Structure formats: structure tokens, C-alpha cells
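As a representative case, the lines below give one protein's residues and C-alpha cells.
***
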Amino acid sequence: MTSSYQPDILGPDFEQQVLPQLPDYEGPVHSTLVRRRPTRPASRAVLYVHGFNDYFFQREMAERYHEHGYHFYALDLRKYGRSWQPHQRPNNVRDLREYFADLDAALAVVRAEGYRAVLLSGHSTGGLVTALYAREGQGRAAVSALFLNSPFLAMHLPRGVRHLAMSLAAMGRFAPDVVIPGTRLTTYGESLHRQHRGEWDYHLPWKPVEVFPVNVGWLGAIAEGHRRIRRGLGLQIPVLVLHADRTVQARGWSEEYFQADGVLNVRDMQMLAPGLGTHVTVRAIAGGMHDLMLSRQPAREQAYRELFAWLATSLGE
């Protein structure tokens, strides 16, 4: 397996391999597995899945896992980041199960490299996808525990707009490529990238400040995923859900984006997370941003403390 890896854009400590998939309605498809180069033996690994309008770039996160004895892997899903091809519309899926093949292939590589325990981790939309995979995915038996960082478990929309969104989602089966106007948010992205107001550096063409537009096929896929979440997943593995302690209330730009979730409603996570399974731990991170691992340092440190304390209990040292 090691011979399949190639150099990665994150530098000499990282490498990647392309995971070919069957073509879909847009043509050829692949996903991309990234790993931090292992420097010592480990019996545990983590596979991380990014969110919407996103890809894996968080070197610090990989290093934290490495320091705690986990070999680190991340997956750029089809049509995101390293896996996005010129003939594809970014983020474009019509059913979240399309991502299951990407996870199957990534977990097959991780299993072949030999670990007694594998943590599956997802942020935001990646949290929604990984939670559903842990319940339904073909390779779910390889997953020992699940960590969700601000998972996208429900739409954060005013009541009237939510009703309109559900009406549009119902169109997904009939006109999936229709683009939804007015969905290109910028304020959260401004809070992250150092060319704007944030402290992080990443490839803006893959994670633009003005998010990629979405179509009704994607919205329909998300709505169906949310219906399955509301029914409850009944997971038997340990699950950790971390989220910010409050949601941004400001309209337009505000410093509040540095201290609260500027994308999702934390009350939705508090309400829905317990239904994910029978061993679910839910914790709020004071001053956390939407991606807790990109928050300001005090909140980021709290998130890592919660995560590794939970892992020590759930998977052992």
C-alpha cells in the first residue's frame, strides 16, 4: 500500500493517494486519501472528513493526533479539494450515500495498514456524512468510535426560509442541477483566512471565502440525510459531539464570528446529537467557532482536551 502514496501539497510530512471510483452523472470520479507520514508504530488511527466548501489542510490537527499516538488520515471527498476535477461542479451530489464509496475505499486502505482501532471523524457536512456512514456504510465494522465537530444535523434557517428550502429540496429528484440563488455566504470564510480577518492559510480556490453555489439536488440529499438523523441512528459505538456554546446572532460581519458558530444553530446539535446512538457524549466549547479546530487558541485547546480525554476513556491509551 505504501508504494501507492505520492507527495502531497502540505509538504514532506504528508502524502496522498488517489482512490478511483465508478463514474457518475458528471463523468469520471475519484476521492483522495491524505496521511501524515508515520514516524513510529501505532495501533490506532483516525480518518477525518472535511465539511462543505472545504478540504483537508489542517496540519495542526494531524500533529495533535500524532502526538497522542494516532496515525492520521484525511479524506478529500469526490468533487472537493484534491478530488475536484474540471468537468465537475464542486460539492455536487444527489444522495449523500454517493460518498459512502469514498469512505469504503479509504477505510480499506486504513484497515490494510493495520490498526486495532479506527476513529472516524467529521466536521459539519462531513459530520452528517460520517454519522450516516457509521450506521449504513458497508465498511462501518472497521469504525471503533465517531467524533463529530459541529455536525450539520439540521438546517439553520428562519422558519419561512426553511419551508421554502424544503420545497426546493423536493425538486432535487426532478431538476437536480438547478442552482439555488442567494446561497453564497462570505462572513464565516472571512473569519478564517489570513488574507481577510482570520489566522489560517489554505488554498482559496478549493475553499473560497464566497462559498460555492449549491443546487437543488445537493439540497435534496442534505434534507434526506437530516430526515434519517431525526429518526435516530441507534449507533452502538462511542460517539463524541463537540460544538460551540452559542450561535452568531449578528447580521453581517461581527467579531462574534470569532467566538460562536457562524454557520449552524448549536441548539439543533444539542437536541439531535443524543439520538445518534446509545453512548453519545455532547460537550459545548466556550468561545468555539463553527470549526472548533480552527477556533481561537483557548477554545481550540479546550476542544482538543475534551477530545483526547474522551478518546482515552473510549479507546484506551
